[in-house]
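DM from R.C. (forwarded with permission)

"hey, sorry to bug you on a friday — could you get me a structure for this? deadline for the figure draft is monday and I only need the backbone to look sensible"
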Amino acid sequence: MRKYLLFSLAIIASIQVVHAQPVLTAANFNPVIGEQFYGYTADTAGVTYGLTGAAVTWNYAFLHDISSDTVTYMSCAATPYCDSFPASNIAWFATPGYGYGITTSGIFVEVGSYIAGSIDLHFRNYVNIAYPFTYGNVRTDTAYATQYAIYPNYYRIIDSFFGDGYGTLILPTGTYSNVLRKHTAEVTADTAYYMGSYSVTLYRQDFYSWFDTGLHTSVLDITTDTAGSTATYVSHVSYSAHAPHLLGVNNSANSNTGLEVFPNPAGNIVHLKFTLDDPRQALITLEDMTGRIAATITGDEMNNGMNDIAIPVSGLPEGMYIVHLISSDKSVSQKIIVSR
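My reply, with the result:
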């Protein structure tokens, strides 16, 4: 199921206590509106999911990147498809679409995803994590999903996850001590409708995800699969890091994104300069730090090529805000300060 969009969508983090096994809780794992992460997809050659148990060392320093993307967390209302997922209180964007979830003090569930013109996927009881969660914990759920594309597909998912290890993780980005690994086993019955008849396909996927304090997402994800094969194989490898341009306020053009925000701080009007290849699916939102939307600009107000958008902020309370720019070819978030 997650192969459609959700590789970046194991949306949880961890707390690190020195010399103690990590414990996942809502306070330190649930997604935070405004955060953004870089995700790196790696070559699967030579990759295995490694050992289970306590005080394990997992060495993946050899991973070779083949692509990268960003994941941006936002409020459901900041997305163009929130009406399809009205119960969602958190959303995220990663190329090519949006994901939606519900977070509480006891659980994080995914409720669906949307790829414009392609896939509209709705989940029921698709549990990502139940809190608290630590090494040795086990949970099993039955989830259901409906995918709307050219023809509808229906899924029944037996989803079991285990806290099967903790220890030290070595990645190309550095060494992470005291990480927790969650192993999720999914057995899916895929019922597809085509030309007036239904067919059922069974397949299994296993997701191995490592969590470290400071990241509200998995540090490393490895997926093994049986879809289309009689043997289990590694189908996906990715790892994450904070997007550095969200760690501070930038007064000038961001060379990685092409977004220029000025003046910053702003008292009356803030200008956004950027270039778009195709504005049809583009969206800009200005949100406060609670996720409340202060301004929205849709693609029909933008141009192909260079844009200079002025947003009035004179009526907003002073404080920190986040500008989200989302389009078919980029996802950018940047902090601004309103000050007088």
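R.C.: lifesaver. The chain has two domains: 6-242, 245-338.
me: no worries. The CA atoms of residues 171 and 213 lie 15 Å apart.
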